[in-house]
């Protein structure tokens, strides 16, 4: 079979154009480094692969607590010079990074609201935390309590326990958990009762979730994104933020135990 010269020319142009488009797509694909804290982690893990699939970008992920001095906490990682393009953590943690010059002023975007809940090991009695009085009695009755070293645990230990008048009594029974999820501690039986962000408890199959703190003593925390100073991939980071805010992913986010702040 033979081809006319003009036919061969068209085929070569078509192949060349295809190679040009492929090369352009590769050139446009970016790699961004993101670190996120606990409450948004489950939603993040579900959504990032879809973002990568839709955009061709590569997301390199890291995880750590919003606050505190644990070796893998977000503040500690910034203090030792680790490089990121985007950070997602509690609003208070983000404001501290802005103040320290790690995150660019004016780039904060609130992604989700999160509340604190409690859980016990599956098959064990479920204590009552539905009222403030019931919560106080449950805390006093528990033989061992685990709470996060991050934002929720800081609120419990520095504000709620003193407010309820149980801080002194809990010195021997309540323990701050470093570099590990509270759910894992309760699941293996190392604590009778665990408190953490709802989104960090509900996916443990070994646990029974018993509810959120009573509204009058609940702390609703925003988990927010910010662009990191010195990042060379700010446009891609902004694209990821918009993806997290989109209506298409809102229901997926809700299913992980947090509420989207804005879906558009």
Quick synopsis:
Helix content is 41%, strand content 22%.
Structure write-up:
By secondary structure, this protein is of the alpha/beta class. It is built from 10 helices and 11 strands. The protein has helices spanning 5-28, 41-55, 74-79, 91-99, 132-141, 151-164, 182-187, 198-201, 234-245, 247-254, and strands at 31-36, 58-63, 86-90, 109-114, 116-121, 145-148, 174-177, 193-197, 207-212, 221-227, 259-260. The strands form 2 sheets. A 6-stranded mixed beta sheet has the order 2-1-3-10-4-11. Helix 2 (41-55) packs antiparallel against helix 10. The longest helix has 24 residues, at 5-28. The radius of gyration is 23 Å and the shape is globular. Residues 1-27 have low confidence and may be disordered.
Feature tags:
264 residues; alpha/beta; D-Maltodextrin-Binding Protein, domain 2; 2 domains; 5-stranded mixed β-sheet; 10 helices; 11 strands
Topology readout:
Elements: H1 5-28, E1 31-36, H2 41-55, E2 58-63, H3 74-79, E3 86-90, H4 91-99, E4 109-114, E5 116-121, H5 132-141, E6 145-148, H6 151-164, E7 174-177, H7 182-187, E8 193-197, H8 198-201, E9 207-212, E10 221-227, H9 234-245, H10 247-254, E11 259-260
Parallel strand pairs: 1-2, 1-3, 6-7, 6-8
Antiparallel strand pairs: 3-10, 4-10, 4-11, 5-8, 5-9
Helix pairs in contact: 2-10
């Amino acid at each position: 079979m033979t081809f006319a010269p003009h036919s061969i020319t068209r085929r070569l142009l078509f192949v060349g154009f295809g190679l040009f488009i492929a090369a352009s797509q590769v050139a446009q694909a970016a790699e961004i480094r993101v670190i996120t804290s606990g409450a948004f982690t489950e939603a993040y893990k579900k959504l990032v692969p879809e973002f990568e699939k839709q955009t061709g970008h590569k997301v390199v992920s890291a995880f750590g607590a919003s606050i505190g001095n644990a070796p893998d906490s977000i503040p500690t990682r910034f203090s030792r010079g680790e490089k990121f393009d985007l950070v997602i953590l509690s609003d208070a943690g983000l404001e501290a990074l802005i103040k320290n010059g790690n995150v660019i002023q004016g780039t904060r975007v609130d992604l989700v609201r999160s509340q604190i809940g409690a859980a016990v090991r599956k098959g064990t009695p479920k204590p009552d935390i539905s009222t403030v009085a019931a919560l106080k009695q449950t805390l006093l009755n528990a033989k061992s309590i685990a709470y996060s070293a991050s934002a929720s645990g800081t609120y419990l230990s520095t504000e709620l326990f003193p407010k309820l008048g149980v801080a002194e009594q809990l010195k021997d029974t309540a323990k701050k958990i470093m570099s590990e999820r509270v759910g894992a501690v309760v699941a293996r039986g190392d604590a009778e009762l665990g408190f953490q962000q709802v989104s960090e408890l509900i996916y443990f199959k070994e646990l029974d979730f018993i509810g959120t703190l009573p509204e009058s003593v609940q702390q609703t925390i925003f988990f927010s994104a910010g662009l990191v100073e010195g990042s060379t991939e700010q446009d891609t980071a902004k694209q990821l933020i918009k993806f997290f805010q989109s209506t298409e992913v809102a229901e997926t986010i809700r299913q992980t135990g947090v509420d989207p702040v804005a879906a558009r």
